[in-house]
Write a structure and sequence with these properties.
With 116 residues, the protein is mainly beta. It is 0% helix and 56% strand. The protein has strands at 3-7, 10-13, 18-25, 31-39, 46-52, 57-59, 67-71, 77-82, 91-99, 104-106, 110-115. Strands 2, 4, 5, 6, 9, 10 and 11 form a seven-stranded mixed sheet that branches. It has a four-stranded antiparallel sheet with strand order 1-3-8-7, with no helix packed on it. A hairpin with a 4-residue loop joins strand 9 and strand 10. It is globular.
Length: 116
């Protein structure tokens, strides 16, 4: 059974930094991407960043230059380093794994709150 466990959320002032981690247990084959999504109150869930098996990355325009996604070599853990945080980054952040076959797995979410 696949599980994704997130950690690292919290409360931070605008301009501060947080680092999110997501560790998976269970085998997923073939893995396509690991990534982070977020959902703010009253809004739809949106892509933040993804990293592929080969290490290529993709970012939402709103976080480019501020957030960095990375993962270990075997893609069991994925990180999201968030710098220069803004109040509009406040949301529940979800870890996501997608397989080549189209299956998706989600973590339980971790709250990030940025105060102005």
């Amino acid at each position: 059974q696949v599980q994704l466990v997130e950690s690292g959320g919290g409360l931070v002032q605008a301009g501060g930094s947080l680092r999110l981690s997501c560790t998976r247990s269970g085998n997923i084959f073939p893995l396509n991407t690991m990534g982070w999504y977020r959902q703010a109150p009253g809004k739809q869930r949106e892509l933040v960043a993804t990293i592929s098996r080969s290490g290529s990355t993709n970012y939402a325009d709103s976080v480019k230059g501020r957030f960095t996604i990375s993962g270990d070599n075997v893609k069991t853990t994925v990180y999201l380093q968030m710098n220069s945080l803004k109040p509009e980054d406040t949301a529940v952040y979800y870890c996501n794994i997608a397989t080549i076959g189209g299956w998706e797995y989600w973590g339980q979410g971790t709250q990030v709150t940025v105060s102005s």
